[in-house]
Amino acid sequence: MKKILVVDDNEMNLEISSSILEENGYLVVEAKDGYEAINKYNNEDNINLVLLDILMPGLSGYDVAKTIRKIDKITPILAFTANSSLADRQMIFESGMNDCVYKPIKVDILLNKIKELLK
What we know:
Blueprint: E1 3-7, H1 11-23, E2 27-31, H2 34-43, E3 49-53, H3 61-71, E4 77-81, H4 86-94, E5 99-102, H5 107-117
Parallel strand pairs: 1-2, 1-3, 3-4, 4-5
Helix pairs in contact: 2-3
């Protein structure tokens, strides 16, 4: 079973994302902010993918991705954001993330991107 770290400071988004992933056979580890995300990433075994909100207080998703990339260049990181401008997309890729999905959530798109990244 693949393990996904889901990071979002919005409780409702975190709950919805986690439920969708669990219903589709993924094991979910949740983090409510960037600091908790890095802590869980460093202390959980075998995280296969990170689903990462971008705009969070404290450490942004960009900061979390850059921190993870210093120690792990391989694990896929999927941005989960409401911001879809070209500049935002550029910052997503520059910070080391592999791809992005946009809020509000479209379940089929989310699951397809995750399957593709986990190949």
